[in-house]
Amino acid sequence: MFLQRITETAWTLSQEMYDKGKFSDCLLVREHLLTAMQHVFGHEHTDVAAGLDNIGVVYRDLGKLPEALAKHDEALRIFRSNLGDDHIDVAKSLDNIGLVYRDLGNLAEALAKHDEALRIRRSKLGDDHIDVAKSLDNIGLVYRDLGNLAEALAKHDEALR
């Protein structure tokens, strides 16, 4: 119980730092949290995977894309190992990986990851869930970057429905 309270407090602190744009400070706190979670739960626990995904988001915001991709890939591996290929946490990691690939300019890989995330989210959450809309929006952004404005508009329009 004590460890849970410390973890929740540290997470809240890191989120406040993130929200204020203090990404380096946020990263430091989240990396310490990850180390503690790995020590308590082991390296293959889904809470560790969630921590890795969260660190990957901060690395992306810092522009450290290879580091972000590595954290998201590791999170995806752990989620798939523990939860299977069609879990919503897998979809979240796939969407995060797609965002990094888009930032790296690897649009084909970004589209593939977002498409896979969308497939999982639709099957698990239904067409009307906000996370389905997020995946559709991400796909639309990739199509825009590819110059396919008609498909981009179609995906953004679908996300709004």
What does the secondary structure layout of this molecule look like, with pairings?
Elements (H helix, E strand, L loop, with lengths): L1 H18 L3 H19 L4 H16 L3 H19 L4 H17 L2 H19 L4 H17 L2 H12 L1
What can you tell me about this protein's structure?
- The chain is mainly alpha-helical.
- It is built from eight helices and no strands.
- The radius of gyration is 16 Å and the shape is globular.
- 35% of the residues are buried.
- The model has no long low-confidence stretch (mean pLDDT 95).
Give the termini distance in whole angstroms: 43 Å
Biggest beta sheet summary: none
> Strand content of the residues, in percent?
under 5%
Helical proportion, percent range: over 70%
List segments where confidence is low: pLDDT < 50 over at least 5 consecutive residues. none
Supply Rg.
16 Å
* Global mean pLDDT: 95
Structure classification? mainly alpha
Instruction: Please state the overall shape, judged from the principal axes of the Cα atoms.
Output: globular
Task: Spell out the helices and strands N to C.
Answer: HHHHHHHH
The count of DSSP E runs of length 2 or more, i.e. the number of strands, is 0
Total count of helical runs of at least 4 residues: 8
